[in-house]
Amino acid sequence: MKNSKYVYLFEEADGSNKRLLGGKGAGLAEMTRMGLPVPPGFIVTTEACTQYYENKKKLPKGLMDEVRANLKKVEEKTGKIFGSPHNPLFFSVRSGAALSMPGMMDTILNLGLNNETIEGLIQITSDGRFAYDAYRRFIQLFGKIALGVDEQEFDQILNQTKEKAKAVEDTDLDADHLKDICKQYLTLVKKSTGSPFPKDPMVQLELAIGAVFKSWMGRRAVDYRREFRITPDMANGTAV
């Protein structure tokens, strides 16, 4: 009988159940139960990933309702609001499996950033350079993983900006340079996909979960499982 629950907060999940939670999810659940300082979050189970593939790469019915309900609980714990331009909450969407597959699946960081929430991040950190660096990295990661934009095109924009600024390293770029890179990245996404970069954080989150699930069948992950004889009944992908 299949489990009808797809999403667990770290503190309510059973850390011994790696098959359901994936190794990373189980570890976060166990550390939370031990009282270690783990940022609040939730786990989307391996069953949801299995259903994703059984449903022709569509997220299972009811999954996003569970995600929204658990997201509200994370907002309550942190005092931050997902999508707020004043006190924004951001997420990392990470992959995991019951057996360790380091670097084989995809991760999206800084999810929730857009042209409005970045203003809140700047207010909170008083560091425009940090905020725009996080934003440009998010656009590139999300664009590549969730939207299928060629990573080399992002790199070309970055390298051209560094050349104009006579910057040797990425760290030599200032906030204005990084802000301009963000604008160029957003233009690239629209040109490459035919649609604007998704501003709505919930749309970002839904696409990111699907993209991480999709990476379970990516070439790197498939080759790794074949080499180490990891079969589908031994492990499956999950998003945290």
What are the salient characteristics of this protein?
single chain, two-stranded parallel ribbon, 52% helix, Dna Ligase, domain 1, 240 residues, Acyl-CoA Binding Protein
Give structural notes.
With 240 residues, the chain is mainly alpha-helical. It has two domains: 1-111 and 200-240, ATP-grasp fold, A domain (Dna Ligase, domain 1); 115-198, Acyl-CoA Binding Protein. It is 52% helix and 9% strand. It is built from nine helices and eight strands. Strands 1-2 form a two-stranded antiparallel sheet. A two-stranded parallel ribbon has the order 3-4. α4 (117-125) runs antiparallel to α5. The longest helix is centred in the last third of the chain and has 19 residues, at 175-193. It is globular, with a radius of gyration of 19 Å. The mean pLDDT is 91.
Summarize this entry quickly:
With 240 residues, this protein is mainly alpha-helical.
State the helix count. Answer: 9
**Looking at this structure, what is the CATH superfamily of the largest domain?**
ATP-grasp fold, A domain
CATH architectural name of the largest domain: 2-Layer Sandwich
What is the fold-level CATH name, i.e. the topology of the largest domain?
Answer: Dna Ligase, domain 1
Q: How do the helices and strands line up, and which of them pair or pack?
A:
Blueprint lengths: L6 E3 L8 H16 L8 E3 L1 H9 L8 H16 L2 E2 L5 E2 L1 E3 L1 E2 L11 E4 L5 H9 L2 H18 L5 H15 L9 H19 L7 H14 L4 H9 L10 E2 L1
Parallel strand pairs: 3-4
Antiparallel strand pairs: 1-2, 5-7, 6-8
Helix pairs in contact: 4-5, 5-7, 6-7
